[in-house]
Amino acid sequence: MTNLNSRQRKMSYGIGIMLLLGPIVYLGFPAEQNAADSSSGGLGKLAQMRQQYDLGEATLGKVDPSSSAMNLVLLGLRGPAASVLHLKAIEYQEKKQWAKLKTTVDSIILLQPHYVQIWKFQGWNLAYNVSREWDKVDDRFYWVKEGIKFLKLGTDRNQTIPILFHNVGEVISSKMGISDEKKFFRVFFKQDPDPKFEVSPGQRGPDPAINEEGKDSYLVAHDWFVKANEKDDDDDLIGVKGMTHVFFRQGPAKSLINYAEMRTKEGAFGEHIAAWEAGFKAWMEDYGRQEFLGLDDKVYTLAPSEEELKQQAERNGITLMAQRKLWESNVKMVNFDFWRRYASAEMAPVTLTLHKTFFDAKQLYMQGKGFDRLDPASGMTVASEAQVKLEEAMQRWLEAKQEFSTMYEDSRYVDEALLIVQYWQAIHQQNARPIPDDYPLKSLWVENSGKHLETEREFQRETRGRKLQ
Description:
Structural class: mainly alpha
Number of helices: 21
């Protein structure tokens, strides 16, 4: 090369550039779209790979051409532009300009479709913050649905992110199951209040965008948690970020336990045992048998046999005592034994009988059968049907506690007992009778005096709209 003159060197450089430009043009050529199946082909190898691995952004988003965000977009600064729009979205939310908020959020995700935090935050924001700004329950449900739909769209555009699939299940589970409006939301989830979902006169179906098959909310959440775990199983994917793995993987089993618990509260006693058995099996066999990595990448499972514990210790190259300590710390962290004992207690016939007796007593009270009546034959006052049933429920609670003494110290069962007493005392008050000095659950009632106000609030919430004699 040193023997070449200036002209020859320039020509050789030009030829080299042309040779290098050829592969670049070949690889960077736009992909040809197949309208029939949305697949891509042609010479654009990089474009095809961007589509295959969902790495490309095919649009600049619906951004106001005169805005500062558009100036940033034209300079190639998508991230800062999305941040500007994010601030605008917060401003519109504070001013309650809902249409502008929705449009701005749509622009953000068009600019940054693979920025996971935007999907997580705005999905949560719509379902929780925006929904509570409305007074009518129907309107709140609409915005909860918008949050769920937003997260679902995030999963469509980010098929490699397990946490987004998990978040869909989490929002469905919590908003339909533990929110203040859960009594209405659970009904709306299968019978949407929007008139456009009317399937027959006076009968409405679910919004197929969030509940295509018309299933219970906890079962739909279960399906999303299963999808999240399946995405996590794929070694080629990014994996779980932002959540401890052992908590992330419990989603499917926990949703089945929550489903069984809710159906019991709703009086579906025909499926009580089967639902709790399914939850227990999922917790012990599916979740409990999965392998997790603890400190220093040591393998453990939550429900190992003694032999498996020894094998895991050998595999980790540590002593059996160290393996047991690792196992115990993680079992405590996820409260694994509590949920095992809880499901075991709920599967027992004595617990089923307790719940059913109390449920029947509450139904009698709501039907106006909590008033004393006069026996025509003897002319004596007879205790109401609801009172008799509540006193039976007290006895059933004591029987269940005798069988599951440790479990019945938990707040769930204590709260149920206090509520039984609250109903029983209310019946005495409405019949203008003094509370007896002694009754089966008196000691428990006295010991938990700090919970009386909370119990009374729950009683008031449950008994709205009861019939009067």
